Structure formats: C-alpha cells, structure tokens
User: What shape does this take?
Amino acid sequence: MTTTAAVTTGTWKLDPTHTEIGFTVRHLMSKVRGKFDTFEGTIVSAEDLGASTVEVSVDLNSINTGTADRDAHLRSADFFEVDSYPSMTFKSTSIKQESDDEFVLTGDLTIKGVTKPVELEVEFLGEGSDPWGGTRVGIEAKGEISRKEFGIDFNIPVQGDKVMIGDKIKLNIVAEAVLQA
Assistant: This one.
C-alpha cells in the first residue's frame, strides 16, 4: 500500500459518485442505516501534514434511509429542521498520523447551528491514476457523535426507561477525491 509520504500535495475534491457519507443509529432492537446523497468537500494536502485541511458541507435534505416517510420525519423540526438548517458542515482543526495509513482527524461539526468537536479515525486507502487521466486518493473514516449534543433529542419512551432511538450515531465515510489541476 502507498504510504502517506507519497500523497501528492494540492487540492482534492470529493467525487460524489464514489463517496458515501453514511451513519448508523440504534432503533428499538435493530439499527437503521442511512446516508446523504448530496454533499461537497475539499481536502488540501500539504507537505507538512499538520497544515492539511478538510472541509465538507452536507445537504441535509438529501438524507436517505430507504424509507420516504422516515426521511421526511428526519427533515422535520423533530430532527434536522432543514427549513432553518439546510446543511451540516465539518471543518478540520488538526490531523495526526498514527501509522503509515492511519490518522486521527479532528474537526468542528456543525448541525442545527451547534458546533462540537468530533474525532474521526481515518484509514488512507491509497493514491493512484484513474482511467481518465486524473489522480485519486481513497480514505475511510469512522467516528461517533451524540445527537443530543446537537439538539436532536426527539424520542419516544418504550417499556420502562428505554427509548425508541439511540443517542449515539456512528459515522461511516468512504471517499474518493480527485486532484484538481
């Protein structure tokens, strides 16, 4: 596998057709998975890793859990309140290399006007040429947030002191980015 020392410096744009920004949340006795279909993001890789940056903006209207009624409810004031807060954003504040292909990316995540730090475990999947003459990098990132910390606390009590929807949201991101000329 290519190590980070070989990453080309420059500005990279997320390729939306080869990137998935997904999540998993506990619902009763199962887990619901979903993703966001519309987003944009930029990675700026610098010779000094600490000077590298990541910025992503996600259109919350594009939430897709595979169930139209649930997606409409998630867009409502009970959850994302997309009429007032149409997007969530991530802006990196630091990146630390753990090994040749593992990093910890820290940044500010903003949802519903609330900004909290979040830490993502990032695996570098490599860099290479594509069939169209471009250069691509691949990464996979995982993290976890508390939805209540962002003011998303809708729930329904069930049996005893339990609730229908879990607080912890697991973030699962698999991305390809293309070097800009």
